[in-house]
Amino acid sequence: MRSSATELSTGSKIRASSAFVHYIKRAFPIYLMILPGFLAIICFKYLPMFGVVISFQKYSPFRGVWGSKWVGFDHFVRLFTEQQFMTLLKNTLILNLIDICFYFPAPILFALILNEVRLRWFKSTLQTIVYLPHFISMIVVVGITVVLFASEFGGVNLLLESLGLPRYQGLNDPDQFRWIWLLQNIWKEVGWSAIIYLAALASIDPSLYEAAVMDGANRWRQIWHITLPSVANVILILFILRLGSFIDVGFEHIFLLQNPLNLAVSDVFDTYIYRVGVQQGEYSYTTAVGLFKSVVGLVLVLSANAIAKRSGREGVY
């Protein structure tokens, strides 16, 4: 009896091992395909996380990480007591709220509109035209905006002056900075961001629409009762992931649009890190600022995911 049980156990282990080897052989091309991305994430995302230790030090490049003096939470205390902290937080939150309220729904709306187009050639042409700005550098986008709307030599302002109309001063107007930033983001990324929604729309069972037509539902009813519920989980997951960068509005775009006249509304944590950390060499302090941003993003993602799971929706994990 004991020997037969041992043989059964050995046989099951051999079968499990054989099945595992077969699975690896079958899925090997897929693992090989994701290997470069996996290595890139390890090298550029996880390994550099060791550097956050300098946020608890008075880091000196000459002494290195292990030779620098430990200061505990001094840099975090300085951040929260900094005179500029509330301004930085307010500007960052306002830009992110504008982004979530206006930019986040834009790709969804574009995907829904494109999904209703029945002419294939028109749909393909429109997709290509809207995708193209994604491949244009933000430096070029801002450069075109400056060439067109610069207060002194901009083409639009020269035209307005020739027509006897007042010049457009939007690039120097703090009240218009946020909307210019938003419109450039929408123009550049709305087509590319819509790809995942278009993929989700393509996976909807056509028989659902056929049944709705039989019940007398018009296009609006079909969108409201079939299309939107079918992509709701995708929208929710992307929204949760978006919250992870709620304190991170990006450096390049803000920095390119920033000037002394709009600094009061354009100065955010990312530009502050560049100014203090890179230009003034306060690496430990700005690392603490970056760690603060990451912790806030992590808390928001975990909280939103927990709320989604409790409400019966699919979360990120």
Question: How would you describe this structure to a colleague?
Answer:
This protein is mainly alpha-helical and 317 residues long. It has helices spanning 2-46, 64-67, 74-81, 85-103, 105-115, 120-131, 138-149, 155-162, 174-193, 195-202, 206-214, 219-243, 252-257, 263-266, 269-279, 283-310, and strands at residues 57-58, 69-70. The protein is built from 16 helices and 2 strands. The protein has a two-stranded antiparallel sheet. α5 crosses α9. The longest helix is centred in the first third of the chain and has 45 residues, at 2-46. The mean pLDDT is 86. The chain crosses the membrane at residues 30-56, 93-114, 135-159, 179-202, 223-241, 285-308. InterPro entries: MetI-like, MetI-like_sf, UgpAE/MalFG_permease. One of its GO terms (biological process) is transmembrane transport.
Give a short summary of the structure.
Keywords: Cell membrane, Membrane, Transmembrane, Transmembrane helix, Transport. The chain is 73% helix and 1% strand. The chain is mainly alpha-helical and 317 residues long.
SSE arrangement:
Layout: H1 2-46, E1 57-58, H2 64-67, E2 69-70, H3 74-81, H4 85-103, H5 105-115, H6 120-131, H7 138-149, H8 155-162, H9 174-193, H10 195-202, H11 206-214, H12 219-243, H13 252-257, H14 263-266, H15 269-279, H16 283-310
Antiparallel strand pairs: 1-2
